[in-house]
Each structure stands twice: as C-alpha cells, then as structure tokens.
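#lab-general

N.A. 3:47 PM
ok so I finally got the sequence cleaned up, no stray characters, all 149 residues accounted for. can someone with queue access submit it? mine expired

B.Y. 3:52 PM
send it over

N.A. 3:53 PM
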Amino acid sequence: MSDLKARIALATKSAMRERERDRVRALRLVNAEIKQVEIDDRKTLGDDDVIAVLTRMLRQRRDSLGQYESAGREDLAAVERFEIDVIEEFLPAALSEAEIDEAVRDVIGATGASTMKDMGKVMGALKGRLAGRADMGAVSRLVRAALSD
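B.Y. 4:20 PM
back already:
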C-alpha cells in the first residue's frame, strides 16, 4: 500500500472514531474512486497514480461547484467545497504562478522550444515535473504565451 493510500485509510479511521460523518463520507468517496481505478486498471496504484486520481476528483468537484453556485444551490455547493478541502489535504502543495512560470521558462530553455509546434514537447516535460502540483490548463496557457512571444 502506498504512503498516500495509507494516510487516507488512517484519516478515515480517525474520522470514524471522532464521529465526523461528513468527513467519513468524503474519505469513503476518495477510497472508492481509488479502488475503482485499481480494479479498472488491474494494478495497485502508487503515490503518483493516487495523486492523479485525486487531481481528477478535485477538478470534477470544482466544475460541480461552479455549476451549483450558478444554479443557486448553496446546499450542494457547500458539500462540494467540503469535499474539495478534504481532497486537497492529501495533494502536494500547489505551486505559485511565479514558480510555474519559472518551470515553464526552464523547460523551454532546456528543450530549445521556440514555436507553437514545440508545445507538445514542452508540455510533456512539464507534465512529469509539475504533475499534481499545478493545474495543467494554467500551465498550458503559460506555455502558449511564452512560445507566442
């Protein structure tokens, strides 16, 4: 069992002991999603894979949150916010915009990228370097801006 999966299991047990129903529910959703991916892929997930699952869950929750807020469903939005907070506890600290920009400049310099045709090469290098710590959509926008200059 990976360290991250062990931390999630420990947090679930702790929440059960403390009788924190909402937290237990959110952690069970996380565990269920991880197990579903393990079953689908027929392999035991390592920390990097678990981070990818958590990142996907976080993106889904943020999309739902926006829809609930625009529809005026504050009750459902509050549930999504809580789940986002729980999921974020297990993800590595997010990088700042300046740190992401610095990484983009470093990779562009290292790969010798100069045009938009090189974007795939740059994004591939950045994905391994920033996975789980940065929104790749935002990274993509920064790469586009840097390569179009």
